[in-house]
Amino acid sequence: MEERSNFGKGSVAGNIMSMAVPMTVAQILNLLYNLVDRIYIGHIPGADSLALTGVGLTFPIVSMITAFAGLFGMGGAPLCSIERGKGNQERAEAIMQNAFWMLAGTGVLIMIAGYAAERPLLYALGGSDATYVYASEYLKIYLAGTLAVMIGLGLNPFINAQGFGKTGMVTVALGALINLVLDPLFIFVLHMGVKGAALATVMAQCCSAVWVLFFLTGEKPLLRLKLRFGRPDWKIVGQITALGTSNFIMNFTNSVVQVVCNRQLQFYGGDLYVGIMTVLNSVREVLTMVVIGMSNGAQPVISFNYGAGKKGRVRQGIRFMTAASIIYTCAAWAVTLAFPKFFIHMFNSEPELLAAGVPAMHIYFFGFCFMALQFSGQTTFQALGQAKYAITFSLFRKIVIVVPLTLLLPLLPGIGLHGVFLAEPISNLIGGCACFFTMLRVIWRGKLKE
C-alpha cells in the first residue's frame, strides 16, 4: 500500500522529489504516445518524410485535446490540494467529481466537432495535397479516443494530488507500454502504416483511462470518484475553470504557435521545413519532460502547505523547484549544442532534412535555460490559486511574443525562414524573466511575507 502523503511534514525537497521522480517518469512515458508514433512513422518504407510531416499537422489538434484535459484536471488538482491542506476532504472530493463530468462532456463535444471539421481544418493548419492523406488517416482514428484522453490525462492529476505519485506513473506507463508494443505490430507487421500508429495510440489511451477510473472508484484513494450523475456545482466548476484556464491557454497557444509556424515554414521553405519543425517540437517535448515533472511534483506540495498556512515550507518548495529546473535546462541546452544530429536521426535520416535541421536546432534551443523561469513562476501562481497571473503569463509568452515574432522576423533581411525558429528563444528570455520576477514580487514579497 502506498502511503497517503501529508506534505506538511518532513523535508520539503524530499516531498517534492517523492512526487517529481515518478511524475517525471510518467511525463516521459506519456510522451511516448506520440513520440514512438513519430519515430516509426518517419521510417515507413516508401513514405519518405511526407508521412511524418502529415502527422505533424495533427499536433495542434492533439494539443487542443490535451488543453481541455488540462483545463479541468490541472485546474481542479491544485484546488484539491489546498482543500486537503485545510482539512476539507468533502469539498476536495466535490471538486474532483465536478471535474470528471466536465472532462467527459467536453470530450464528447470535441470528438464530434473534430470529425465535422477535419478536412478544412487540416488544410488550414498548413496541409498540402501530398501530406493531407497521411494527416487525415491519423486524425480520424485518433479522434475516436478523445474521451479516453480526456479522462486519462484529466483525472490523473487528482491521483497525484492525493500523494499517489507511483500510481499516477502506472497510469501513463500502462498506456505507453501498450503503445510501444502495438505500434510496430500495426505499422510494419500488419502494414497499416499511419492508421496503425493512430490505432495503437487510441487503444493505449483507453487502457490508461480504464485504469484511472478503476483506481479512483476503489477503496484506496482518499478522495473517491462516484460515477453516478449529479447536478454540477457551477460555483466549483467556475473555480476549476478559472484556475485551469492558465494551463489551457498554455496548451492552446502551443496549438496556435504550431499553426502559425507551419504556415510560415510552408510558405518560405515547403514540406521539408514543416518536417524539421515537427522534429524540433518532438525534441523539445522530450527535453522539457523533466522540468514539467519537477513542476507537477512541486505543485501539490506547495498547494498543500499554502492551504495549511505554512509559508516557510512554501518558500522552500519554490526555491528547490526553481534551482533544480535551471540546472537541468542548462545541461539540456548543452546537449542539443553538442549532439544535434543524434536527435534528428531519431526521427528521420534523410540527408536533406539532417543538413537543414542542425542549424535550425541550434537556433531553436538557444537560451533554453530561461524556459525554467517560465515553468517555476507559472507553477507557483497555479499552486497558490492565483488564476489572474497564471492566465496573464500563459498568454504573454506565446500570443504577445512568439506569434508576432514568427510573422515578422522572416521579413527581416538576412534572417528569412530562420526567423520562425528564432522566435522561440526570444520568447523564453522575455516571457520567462517577466513571469518569474513578477512571481517574486507578488508571491515571495507579497503573500508569503512573514
Strands, total number = 0
Q: Could you say which structural class the secondary elements and strand pairing correspond to?
A: mainly alpha
Number of domains: 1
Shape: globular
Question: Can I get a quick summary?
Answer:
With 450 residues, the protein is an all-alpha fold.
Provide tags for this entry:
mainly alpha, single chain, 450 residues, 17 helices, 81% helix
Molecular structure report:
By secondary structure, the chain is mostly helical. The protein has one domain (12-447). 81% of the residues lie in helices and 0% in strands. α1 (12-41) packs antiparallel against α9 (193-216), α6 packs parallel to α9 (193-216) and α12 packs antiparallel against α15. The longest helix has 37 residues, at 271-307.
List the helices and strands and how they pair.
Elements (H helix, E strand, L loop, with lengths): L11 H30 L8 H7 L2 H28 L2 H28 L1 H7 L4 H14 L3 H16 L3 H25 L3 H24 L17 H35 L2 H37 L3 H28 L1 H6 L5 H14 L6 H13 L3 H22 L9 H30 L3
